Structures are given as structure tokens and as C-alpha cells.
Amino acid sequence: SGANSDLTLQTTSGTGVIGADMHFLVGNNGGTEAMTILNSGNVGIGTTGPDEKLDVLNTNTQLRLTYADGSTFTNFFTDVQGDLYIEPSGGDVFLPASGTLTVPGLTRGSVLFAGNNGLISQDNSNLYWDDTNNRLGIGDSSPDAILEITTASANDILFMISSDDGGDGDL
């Protein structure tokens, strides 16, 4: 009863009792279950059966992190295909300079570019970086020079330098 007293919520006097879950009900006569804490310690928001320590179920934003100003935020959500979306109100996502970004499915030597529909793409047979020897292959996945351009047709122009006035030179 003192000013520094803790508040303890307890569903049962024993421990390890199956079904001793805690349910937080809101709305008209508690008609909406807002949060569940299972006996396992898993917390569910929007779900009565959380599978992990925190399980948020919703069809749109499932998590919002908001800066102290109250107006700058980042939304996180997972769609029906299981894809993760990160939507910062500022528009940018940064990784620390000391961090590493690993993108599964990429192959060694890939030079990434925006492909169809703006998707990150790779095409090592047309654009390849040999990081060991610092060589770039265009049309060649094993360049033998700092820059190697290979074409399947002798009639292809391999290199062109153009100027704004319309003049150009082919190599």
C-alpha cells in the first residue's frame, strides 16, 4: 500500500498450470480481446494464440516505431505472401556503416541493378564483377582484363563515345 508498491497480476497460484493464460478484454462488456499473455510467456496482440514471444496479428501495419516528436515513424508489416514491408515516413532505410547486408539468392560477382518493376536484379552473363582481381566483365563472366567487353556478334558496336552535339565515335 506504499507509494513504491509493485502491481502483480497473477492468473493462478501455481506455476506451469496449463491454461493459466491472461486475457485483456476491452470494449462493450469486454467484447474485444485486445491482448493475450499465454502461460508460456508468449504475448499476442490481435491473436489469442501467439506462436512467439511477441506475435502481432493484423492485415496492415503490425508495428510502428515512432520518434519522440510523435510525427516521424516507421511502419512494419507482413503481407499475405509473408513479405516484409518497411515504410519509413522519411522515405529512407539506412544500415550502419559497420553493418553487413546479406541478400539471399545472389551469386558471387553479381552487379546489382534495378530490373523490371524496379526489382533488384542480377545477370552475371551480361554484367560481372571479379572482386579478387578487380575486373569488370560486360557480356563476360570471367574477365581477363580490368574491363572486358564480349559480344556474340562481330557486327555489334562494343563501345561508343557520344557528345551532346550528336557526334559519336565507334570502337
Note down, in words, how this protein is organized.
The chain is an all-beta fold. Helices cover 0% and strands 31% of the residues. It contains no helices and 14 strands. The strands form five sheets. A four-stranded mixed sheet has the order 1-2-3-4, with no helix packed on it. Strands 5-6-7 form a three-stranded antiparallel sheet, with no helix packed on it. It is elongated. The N and C termini lie far apart (89 Å). The model has no long low-confidence stretch (mean pLDDT 85).
Which features characterize this protein?
mainly beta; 4-stranded mixed beta sheet; 3-stranded antiparallel beta sheet; 14 strands
Summarize the structure.
The protein is mainly β.
Distance between the termini: 89 Å
Which range best describes the helical content: under 10%, 10-25%, 25-40%, 40-55%, 55-70% or over 70%? under 10%
Instruction: Extract low-pLDDT stretches.
Output: none
SSE ordering: EEEEEEEEEEEEEE
Gyration radius, in Å: 28 Å
How many extended strands?
Answer: 14
C-alpha geometry: elongated
> What's the multimeric state?
single chain
Estimate the strand proportion: 25-35%
Biggest sheet, open or closed, and with what strands and sense? 4 strands, mixed
